[in-house]
Amino acid sequence: MKCRKCGGAAALELRRHNAAFCSPHFLEFFRKQVAEAVHRHHMFTRDEQIMVAVSGGKDSLALWDVLIEDGYQTAGLYLDLGIFDYSKESKAKCQAFAASRGQTLHIERVAEAVGAPIPVVQQATRRPTCSACGLSKRYLMNRAALQHGYPVVATGHNLDDEAATLFGSVMHWQTDALPRQSPALASTHPKLVRRVKPLYRLSELETAAFAFLRGIDYIVEECPFAKGATSIAHKQVLDRLEEASPGSKHNFLFGFLEKARPAFEKIEHVELLECTSCGQVTTGAICAFCKLADLVKRRTTG
Amino acid sequence: MKCRKCGGAAALELRRHNAAFCSPHFLEFFRKQVAEAVHRHHMFTRDEQIMVAVSGGKDSLALWDVLIEDGYQTAGLYLDLGIFDYSKESKAKCQAFAASRGQTLHIERVAEAVGAPIPVVQQATRRPTCSACGLSKRYLMNRAALQHGYPVVATGHNLDDEAATLFGSVMHWQTDALPRQSPALASTHPKLVRRVKPLYRLSELETAAFAFLRGIDYIVEECPFAKGATSIAHKQVLDRLEEASPGSKHNFLFGFLEKARPAFEKIEHVELLECTSCGQVTTGAICAFCKLADLVKRRTTG
Fold first, then answer.
1. What's the pTM?
2. Are B260 and A173 an interchain contact pair (Cβ–Cβ within 8 Å)?
3. Are the C-beta atoms of residues A253 and A162 closer than 8 Å to each other?
């Protein structure tokens, strides 16, 4: 296999693009895909301060690396979920990355905000762990960005993540979730910062290759609670379809964004209010995060 | 396991309904599901003549059996695809079934209409066999119903078929196909008869059990061209999801029909014309069937 750009020995084959690249040209390809995502969805400008939500994994650190190298003004946000050694190690990776690049890293402890670390939250809610954890992360990302004055939060969601989430929403036809699935969510309320996913055009394999080639030290282990998660089962389904027909994931996600999402946007109208307890944006009187924190408080002090 | 209705020994467990039935109560359950489908989608009345498209397989013969037993006025339509012994055997099953019930069976030869049997059509078109075959079947069903004066064609598509078709349309976001996916398609033009799928609430396993318990002699072999078809790969994906979470297929299909289909109906507007060659309904000047027949003629006589 030869590099599509220079004809040299290829380091990586990208079947869905029917292309192969040597290491330097793969890095160039990767950065161009991020630039294309930022440009196409007007994610942010060079004048803005971007908060990059980092987990210590390959995706979010690769994203931060690209944005720093490209000259964007960034800071990291690490959400400490309190998941035993997994959280300790992932925090250390983020701190080391930030220090090596001379970047600010904000740290928020979920235990402080919700009242208990995620493993205790899980036991208190008796619901799938990822549900309460995802809710807490989205809430704290937005709150931290508002507090520190960042107009936009960038997350490391890649093509595989986005396709798997879409797959889950589609299997249940969650018509409230479908219009929110987008590489860029605008601020629809003064207390909601923009949320963007500059890696949505790049697969998990590609972010792993980028992180490896860039020598990024990231946490390889998955979250211990992810085992058996529906999203992983959905990723496996999509992997099989991708294997049989390269480009399946891409077509599924991009086809949705281009052709189907507008149809769902039209049927979904929600009024945004401010939570009477914390003041953050919600569609009810009390936001889901405050309800979760209240439940955790009652069940852990009972 | 005990029958949900009578407490006797159950013959069949239906996990997605969290129920089990003895043989007589399963047959009753099956017929009620068909009646519910007919009622809910106003498929046809007892005053109408229904053309039942039969392939000789379990689904379409089970459907015909239910409709006859329920006192509907029916006749069969067998489309002879000219697929070697498979077609010979399946035609014989349909003829025997019709004769044993004293019913009329109309037979249309695809070779006569398209100019060649399906195996030759496949070679001529160099496209997936199922594509030209499906097109021909839909065309000939409608034409035969019009010619013989039936206002409605009923097909044996079951829940698994419908879920797999929907899955394929969704993976590619075929926004033209999505609004047409329905248990009942109205006549939107004087030359289009209604098309209905009274088995859409019943799984493949359930139609097989019904056919077995009713002693229906059907062709067990799949069409020899179906091997490797995308629809089969999609059925396998759905089978795995169903295995992990009973009811997945049902929720996927029914959720679409209830929540998502209306969104797609709105964005799709097509003008129906009459084919300048054959007079049947089309969206262009020449219908897809006439184009196919023309292609077959040119490639087989060249």
1. 0.91
2. yes
3. yes
Nearest to B136 by CA among B148, B123, B118: B118
**Residues 152-171, chain B: which have Cβ within 8 Å of A?**
170-171
Contacts with B231 from chain A: Cβ below 8 Å: none
How many angstroms separate the CA atoms of A165 and A293, rounded? Answer: 25
* Chain A contact present for B126, CB below 8 A: no
Q: Residue A150 corresponds to which tokens in the numbers above?
A: 């960042």
CB-CB neighbors (< 8 A) of A252 in chain B: 170-173
Residue B177 has pLDDT above 70, yes or no: yes
> Average pLDDT for residues A40-61, to the nearest whole number?
98
Best residue in B170, B239, B253 for a mutation probing chain A (most A CBs within 10 Å):
B170
A173, B262: Cβ pair inside 8 Å?
no
For B17-31, how does the pLDDT look when each residue is reduced to its tens digit (9 = 90+)?
A: 999 999 999 999 999
Orientation of helix B58-69 relative to helix B204-213, angle to 10°: 60
Mean per-residue pLDDT, B247-258: 97
Instruction: Give the per-residue pLDDT at B130.
Output: 87
Convert the pLDDT of each residue in B63-90 to its tens digit.
999 999 999 999 999 999 999 999 999 9
Is B172–A233 a contact, with Cβ atoms under 8 angstroms apart? no
Beta bridge partner(s), residue B73 = B49
**For the residues of A163-182, what is the DSSP string, one character each?**
HHHHHHHHHTT-TTTGGG-S
pLDDT of residue A65: 98
Number of Cβ within 10 Å of residue B177's Cβ equals 16
Neighbours of A185 (CB within 10 A): 18
Most B CBs within 10 Å, among A166, A167, A170, A264, to test the B interface: A170
pLDDT in tens, A253-275: 999 999 999 888 876 677 899 99
Q: Is B175 on the interface with A (CB under 8 A)?
A: yes
Q: CB A124: neighbour CB atoms within 10 A?
A: 20
- Fill in the amino acid letter for B295: L
- In this complex, is the C-beta atom of B237 within 8 Å of any C-beta atom belonging to chain A? yes
pLDDT band at residue B125 using 50, 70 and 90 as cut-offs: confident
What value does the mean pLDDT take over residues B132-154? 96
B22: amino acid identity, one letter: C
Contact A195, A185 (CB under 8 A): yes
Distances from the Cα of B124 to the Cαs of A242, B81, B96, B152, B193, in angstroms? 29, 15, 33, 32, 30
Query: Beta B184-185 vs B194-196: how paired, if at all?
Result: antiparallel
A266 contact residues in B (CB cutoff 8 A):
263, 266
Write out the DSSP string of A130-146.
Answer: HHHHHHHHHHHHHHHHH
CA distance A127 to chain B (A): 16
pLDDT tier at A129 (50, 70, 90 boundaries)? confident
